[in-house]
């Protein structure tokens, strides 16, 4: 409370002083003429103003004069019980309107709380009883719905703040099939599951709908934080985040901060939840493998090596950086719809060995490795789609996409978009970089499946791994041959090369061939393009990050195509990126055709060799080789095995020829 009182004392007499007694008139203090403090009513001073003047005179007559300002200030802040008791009369029967509204809102919010108890009756999720279903999208939406149901006032208030005008987001018109084909990236984003889109690099929801979903996510998160802060047993979102944060390698300090602000449970709770999930997964693996004898084919076991480093900043005795070298893997259950189309008699161990015997007498014809006419036509469409993609992303837009060359090639054989049924294996403290190590890996896998040695080796077991794993496995099998005991000869194991590993290894060989010599400035290898794009050439080929290598190859490929397009469109580098060109469909198609005919055909490469233009010839060869790698990457991302298989540019090396018959 702020009181402003600043009277000015004067010796002037007032014309209305006759209303006071002579003794009072002698000692009274009048205000200055320019600052009257008494309200005149009917020509006389009001009784209230007379009392105020009387009090001011009394304070002025004290030995230690006390101004009204000092009196009010001391009266308000004094801790003397008698003075505080006198202030009791200041209480009002009704408070300030804003305070009343605030108190009413607080009471409403305090009355809104999710029910107590264990889930699904209440909102408590125990880390000792959590299961895999808790992390599904359906459970997450059910928990959010429960929060909104029991905290409607907070939810609607926050939504009203973030969306003050109560905007109604319009529904965008449905795109034509041709426009969807021209935008495969957008179609791919729509196919991303909701629980995966939250950790994807691109937002799966764009436009007004995406904005509304973002507002809902923010509001639901705030509601969960408030519920958790009031009662730590309302921990649905927090337990979900704690397990994910810990699994993704978030630091202890960051997770403690997330727990402090109510976004995550403690790290101890996350570890307890992971142990519970590990026990559940172990039982599920044994149950699956126990039923595998009744299946046509066993689940595929995929394994790969892994290096995890626990870095220590301050090294001391017993406290040093440690690197875990082991093997991780998972089981992939076959799709029942796919199994229904297979012949059971061809999925046995005897049928598998019989097919290998037939390979020995197979006659190989060079024409078997040459592309057919339909494959050549498809390869032409692949080239033009790659050129059109760069043209659309970097330079121009087509005024009629329905009549323009699309940015993605036609589909051939797309696999099902249904989520695969995967079951993770426990990390194995065995490194598959030797025949002894791969033997330890198999012992760990058999132990986790719960089968005996006779049961595991009695049925055909498909497996997936990289090239080094298959070589080590073949070495182990050759050391144990000949043997009639299934546990020793391990002839029931059939390894297949993973698509990603195959792409990485062949891409490494192609990139190493074109990288050039970075120490020679006259060398015009691919390292020059990397440096021009702002990437250090010596970091391009790394065995620990093959994905980065493939991405850099794609960047070089698109940069070269962009330059070829700029040459045909007569554009300089300064105009690139300022404003997109608007090209009609016929100009769009003619530009793509010109670039394809001039730089992407075998005739163009042959003409460059005949003209003895070494730099152009090497650049066109680089475009040809990198195009195959880029198409393999994009076809795998699109799930089109029909586009992936006929990649005639991926030539096998001698090491792949060693394992290719099997």
Termini separation comes to 89 Å
DSSP, total strands: 9
* Tally of structural domains: 4
Please describe the biggest sheet, giving its number of strands, its sense, and whether it closes into a barrel. Answer: 5 strands, mixed
Across the major sheet, the strand order is 6-4-3-7-8
Explain this structure to me?
The chain is α/β, with parallel strands linked by helices. The chain folds into 4 domains: 17-90, no CATH class; 108-168 and 185-277, no CATH class; 303-362 and 427-497, no CATH class; 375-415 and 501-659, no CATH class. 52% of the residues lie in helices and 7% in strands. The protein has helices at 22-27, 47-60, 68-77, 81-86, 97-111, 137-150, 152-162, 177-181, 184-191, 194-197, 207-230, 236-247, 252-260, 267-290, 336-339, 349-360, 373-395, 435-449, 453-456, 467-480, 486-489, 499-514, 526-532, 546-569, 585-599, 602-610, 614-638, 641-644, 654-659, and strands at 40-41, 44-45, 300-310, 322-333, 396-398, 421-424, 461-465, 493-497, 581-583. The strands form 3 sheets. Strands 6-4-3-7-8 form a 5-stranded mixed sheet. A two-stranded antiparallel sheet has the order 1-2. Strands 5-9 form a two-stranded parallel sheet. Strand 1 (40-41) and strand 2 (44-45) form a beta hairpin. Helix 7 packs across helix 11 (207-230) and helix 26 (602-610) runs antiparallel to helix 27 (614-638). The termini are far apart. The model is unreliable at 1-42, 170-202 and 647-662 (pLDDT under 50). Residues 361-645 form the DUF6589 domain. Residues 9-36 are annotated as: Disordered. It comes from Puccinia coronata f. sp. avenae.
């Amino acid at each position: 409370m702020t009181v402003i009182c600043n009277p000015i004392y004067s010796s002037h007499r007032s014309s209305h002083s006759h209303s006071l007694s002579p003794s009072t008139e002698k000692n009274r203090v009048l205000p200055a003429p320019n600052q009257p403090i008494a309200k005149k009513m009917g020509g006389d001073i009001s009784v209230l103003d007379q009392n105020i003047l009387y009090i001011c005179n009394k304070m002025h007559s004290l030995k230690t004069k006390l101004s009204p300002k000092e009196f009010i200030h001391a009266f308000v802040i004094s801790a003397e019980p008698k003075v505080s008791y006198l202030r009791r009369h200041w209480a009002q029967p009704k408070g300030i309107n804003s305070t009343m509204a605030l108190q009413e809102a607080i009471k409403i919010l305090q009355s809104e709380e999710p029910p107590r108890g264990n889930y699904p009756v209440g909102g408590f999720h125990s880390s000792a009883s959590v299961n895999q279903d808790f992390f599904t999208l359906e459970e997450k939406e059910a928990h959010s719905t429960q929060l909104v149901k029991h905290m409607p006032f907070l939810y609607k208030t926050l939504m009203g703040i973030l969306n003050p005008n109560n905007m109604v987001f319009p529904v965008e018109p449905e795109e034509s099939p041709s426009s969807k084909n021209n935008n495969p990236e957008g179609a791919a984003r729509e196919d991303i599951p909701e629980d995966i889109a939250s950790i994807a690099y691109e937002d799966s929801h764009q436009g007004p709908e995406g904005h509304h979903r973002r507002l809902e996510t923010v509001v639901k998160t705030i509601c969960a934080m408030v519920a958790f802060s009031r009662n730590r047993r309302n921990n649905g979102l927090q337990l979900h985040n704690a397990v994910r944060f810990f699994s993704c390698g978030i630091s202890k300090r960051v997770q403690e901060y997330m727990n402090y602000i109510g976004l995550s449970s403690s790290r101890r709770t996350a570890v307890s939840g992971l142990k519970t999930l590990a026990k559940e997964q172990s039982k599920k693996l044994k149950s699956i493998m126990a039923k595998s004898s009744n299946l046509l084919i066993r689940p595929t076991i995929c394994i790969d090596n892994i290096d995890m480093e626990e870095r220590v900043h301050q090294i001391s005795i017993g406290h040093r950086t440690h690197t875990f070298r082991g093997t991780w893997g998972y089981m992939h259950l076959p799709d029942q719809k796919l199994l229904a189309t297979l012949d059971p008699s061809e999925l046995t161990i005897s049928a598998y060995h019989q097919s290998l015997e037939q390979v020995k007498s197979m006659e190989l014809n060079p024409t078997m490795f040459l592309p057919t006419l339909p494959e050549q036509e498809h390869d032409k469409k692949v080239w033009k789609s790659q050129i059109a993609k760069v043209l659309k992303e970097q330079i121009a837009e087509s005024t009629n996409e329905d009549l323009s060359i699309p940015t993605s090639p036609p589909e051939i054989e797309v696999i099902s978009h249904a989520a695969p049924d995967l079951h993770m294996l426990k990390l194995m403290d065995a490194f598959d970089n030797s025949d002894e190590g791969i033997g330890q890996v198999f012992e760990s896998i058999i132990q986790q499946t719960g089968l005996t040695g006779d049961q595991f080796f009695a049925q055909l077991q498909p497996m997936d791994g990289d090239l080094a794993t298959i070589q080590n496995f073949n070495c182990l099998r050759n050391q144990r041959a000949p043997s009639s005991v299934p546990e020793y000869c391990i002839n029931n194991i059939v390894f297949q090369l993973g698509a990603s590993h195959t792409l990485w290894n062949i891409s490494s060989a192609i990139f190493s061939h074109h990288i050039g010599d970075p120490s020679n400035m006259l060398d015009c290898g691919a390292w020059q393009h990397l440096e021009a794009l702002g990437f250090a050439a010596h970091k391009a080929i790394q065995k620990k990050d093959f994905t980065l290598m493939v991405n850099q190859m794609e960047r070089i490929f698109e940069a070269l195509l962009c330059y070829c397009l700029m040459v045909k469109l007569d554009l300089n580098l300064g105009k690139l990126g300022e404003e997109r060109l608007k090209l009609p469909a016929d100009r769009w198609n003619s530009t793509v055709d010109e670039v394809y005919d001039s730089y992407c055909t075998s005739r163009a490469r042959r003409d460059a060799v005949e003209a003895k233009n070494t730099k152009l010839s090497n650049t066109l060869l680089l475009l040809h080789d990198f195009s195959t790698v880029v198409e393999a990457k994009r076809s795998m991302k699109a799930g089109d095995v029909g586009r992936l298989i006929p990649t005639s540019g991926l030539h096998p090396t001698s090491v792949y020829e060693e394992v290719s018959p099997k």
